[in-house]
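Class prep. Sample record?

___
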Amino acid sequence: MPKVSMQFNCPEENDELLTALHGVDYKILLGEVSQWLRNAQKYGHELKTPDEVIAYLRELIIEGCRDRNVDVY
């Protein structure tokens, strides 16, 4: 079975290391955001302005990262 390994120079590449370690968390979160967008497009939503949509999506991302103990940049 093929194997893959990655090397990071710590501490200067610590952000890259954390991104690699939490990649699945980011993928799940992106799927949740995509699902909200799909539902909003298909069924509508209660948000009135583009700024409200942006604020809601930003909060969704921040909360999702906080729930998964990953950093948001």
